[in-house]
Amino acid sequence: MAYSEENEVFSIQTFDLTKRFTKKKHKGILGFLRKERKKEKQKNEPSDITVALDHVNMKIRSGELFGLLGPNGAGKTTLVKCLSTILIPDKGTAVVNGFDIRKQTSMVRASLGLVIGGERTLYWKLTARDNLMYFASLYKMPRKQAKERVEELLETMQLSDRADERLEDYSTGMRQKIAIARALLHDPPVLLLDEPTLGLDPTFSRQIRNQIKELSEKHGKTILVATHYMDEADQLCNRVAIINDGKVVAVDNPNKLKSMVKETELVEIVCYGPPQDIEKHLKSLCADVDIVTLIHGDESKGNPSKIKIIGVNAEECVSTVIDWLRRKNVRISSLNIGVPTLEDVFIKLTGAKLTEGGGQ
Length: 360
Hints:
The protein is α/β, with parallel strands linked by helices. Helix content is 33%, strand content 28%. It has twelve helices and 15 strands. The strands form three sheets. It has a six-stranded mixed sheet, with helices on both faces. Strands 1, 2, 3, 5 and 6 form a five-stranded antiparallel sheet that branches. Strands 13-14-12-15 form a four-stranded antiparallel sheet, sandwiched between helices. Strand 10 (239-244) and strand 11 form a beta hairpin. Helix 4 packs across helix 5 and helix 4 (128-138) packs parallel to helix 6. It is globular, with a radius of gyration of 24 Å. Mean pLDDT is 86; it is low at 356-360.
């Protein structure tokens, strides 16, 4: 039931989708909380308002693997929750599989599979098979059909041999596989996946990504993947929307997005012990370049920091930067000249880093 527009078929489209959250300021301790709330209402004091989504307009083609890339707090989860009817937008609407999220909520829910914080939607004291059978019953699937579907999904997720173990004995990656299997039980045409590989080790992350790609390429699912991992968006998605502070600032395929900074030079300096205010100093040293940014690594665990210099004249200022770093006793591990990434595009468009932010 996806719909057509100018010879293209879309499974998801948003129209000025806007969502705000209100945070009231309360005074007093627990014993007086109710009284204080009442006082605040009477005073009609203005509340703190956070705009999580700001007039978002977006189209996702049928069968497309679409990425929503942004830092924590950018509005990714809020958008997924609005599309799945968990949250009601304050303004605007969206159409999912031909159904309006405001007027046809039950049809929208029947059309999609949802994974948000995967393992929290499962019952750890039940086995994997029992979890899936339980959720199949909620979809009112006939028992014979449900058993066949559950076995098929367990095989797809490569968990058939451990299907009768409790989820509390599963790893985080295995539980995430069951969460995705749960979303696929009723064979929905649309999948909404919010940070599907968050917290997974590289092996499980690769497995999950491969399964997501297969669902798109072999089974024709329309998939929205919300992520703050640039590599995930780059490797998986046909197109990517970059979102920051609730606004979509760019939409295109990864290669075209990267071409926005393609004709510039990228110099990456891997180092240990950079000063906290390094970006300010480097920008004064490299006045002719577009971007100078520091990505902090967890050096206590042996992960170095990275200094990125992007611009037409990036290479010309390298020797000046190296001399300055040495005077500041920064230990330089390596220097690379490479191709700009989606994160570099994000920094150029927003001035922020994908690792920044926290909230919605």
